[in-house]
Specification:
five-stranded parallel β-sheet; globular; 22% helix; 3 domains; FAD/NAD(P)-binding domain; alpha/beta
């Protein structure tokens, strides 16, 4: 018995219909006569914003202040108006060639042979098993995505008293969703010594929700069966423990890229981001395959991911134009400088620089820190020597992306070997 497979040959296939994928499609489709295909496994395009029903989206990329669903719908309309084809309920299952992917849809199997592939699969929060939280396994434990899907899309019910693990931007998004569902946030817990999100969000958030933020703490045990009754909170410095009664637990943050397709292709991964290694043009080490958005650096805001999508479009067009003349030499394989994140940084993106490549999106290097430094100096070392030291006037803080202007790289020697980036107080 054989199964029919439909073969499609777009100029570009984009895997993922979130902000970065849709923005890339919007930019590419007019330049390619609409020959752009976007595949997404969800039934509705738009990514995470479509079930994040609160304002705060579209500020940087659209100059607007709108809700997540409105932002998602606008991105979809823009991509379709530009001529891109969006197919939902299309799950990419693997690779059948360098730039050929296979997918399943309700209408049958697809084989997509493209001139370029853009991976925009995003990131997800680690669920409870991956966080190794001991205790019972009751109902009432959610990730932010699960919670928002339940409340905003399925109009389901949650409990009355919630504990949120995390105190970063997405944690306050979860608190907003809980408030809409009639559930009070009684505690937010973070292992860091201060709330992870910007004071602009955390201070009004605590006033609005009446939630206490317990720093240097973690959930050490989940209590209740079959329903959640309480959690045990441990101070990570003193070991002191206490019981907090709740019927809802929301696990926020602790992101990991959706990198299964990257791993299946054998594309090089960065041990810090857990996403694919890319250069400033967002090229992976497989010719014609690009990666973009929160697949690269989990996790940044939706509008920054969308700006990444617009940025990658220029690189995709350059590849298609060069490959049309001669694929040999169209994809650089040498002359690179590797950027390495040293403590307190966990990762840096992009990780590779090459002479002549475009500057990163928004002319910023992105880094993630595990320690708070209020007035940092960014220090670059190459071959054991300090090649740059820059004072910046915004803090290094866990739980949010730290941005450094790319002109800090102006003293880097293109032939001098890896560049190590750190921050000092």
């Amino acid at each position: 018995m054989t199964t029919d497979i439909t073969t499609l040959t777009p100029a570009v296939v984009i895997v993922g219909a979130g902000p970065s994928g849709l923005s890339a499609a919007r930019e590419l489709a007019p330049r390619l006569g609409g020959d752009v295909l976007v595949l997404d496994r969800e039934s509705t395009a738009g990514g995470i914003p479509r079930h994040s029903d609160h304002p705060g989206y579209g500020i940087r990329d659209m100059g607007r202040f709108m809700s997540g669903p409105a932002y998602a719908r606008r991105l979809v309309r823009q991509a379709e108006a530009a001529g891109a084809t969006i197919r939902t309920n299309a799950t990419v299952t693997g690779w059948a060639g360098e730039r050929t992917i296979e997918a399943t849809t309700p209408q049958g199997r697809l084989r997509v042979e493209a001139g370029a592939v853009v991976l925009a699969t995003g990131a997800r929060e680690r669920p409870r098993p991956a966080r190794l939280i001991p205790g019972d396994r009751p109902r009432g434990v959610y990730t932010t995505g699960h919670l928002q899907n339940l409340v905003h899309l399925r109009h389901g019910r949650v409990g009355e008293r919630a504990v949120i693990v995390g105190a970063e931007l997405v944690s306050w998004s979860a608190a907003l969703t809980l408030r809409e569902a009639g559930c009070r946030t009684v505690l937010m817990t973070t292992e860091y010594p201060r709330p992870d999100s910007y004071a602009l969000f955390s201070v009004p958030g605590r006033m609005l929700f009446g939630a206490k933020v317990a720093t240097r703490t973690r959930v050490s045990r989940i209590i209740g069966r079959p329903e959640l009754r309480a959690v045990e909170i441990e101070n990570v410095d003193t070991g002191e423990r206490r019981i907090v009664e709740c019927d809802t637990l929301v696990l926020t943050g602790d992101w990991i890229p959706d990198h299964e397709l990257v791993r299946a292709a054998g594309i090089a991964l960065d041990p810090g981001t857990k996403g694919p290694l890319v250069d400033s043009a967002l090229r992976t080490d497989r010719p014609g395959v690009f990666a973009v958005g929160n697949l690269l650096h989990p996790v940044d805001t939706a509008d920054i991911a969308a700006i990444d999508g617009a940025h990658v479009a220029r690189s995709v067009m350059a590849w298609l134009n060069n490959a049309a003349r001669s694929e040999e030499g169209a994809w650089p394989t040498s002359g690179q400088v590797r950027l390495v994140a040293d403590a307190p940084f966990r990762w840096v993106s992009p990780e590779i620089l090459r002479p002549g490549d475009p500057v990163p999106a928004r002319r910023r290097l992105l880094l993630w820190s595990d320690r708070y430094i209020p007035f940092p100096h960014v220090v670059l070392r190459q071959a054991g020597k300090v090649v740059a030291r820059r004072r910046v006037w915004w803090p290094v803080a866990p739980g949010r992306v730290f941005r450094v202007p790319t002109d800090v790289l102006s003293s880097v020697d293109p032939k001098g070997g890896p560049v190590h980036i750190t921050a000092e107080g």
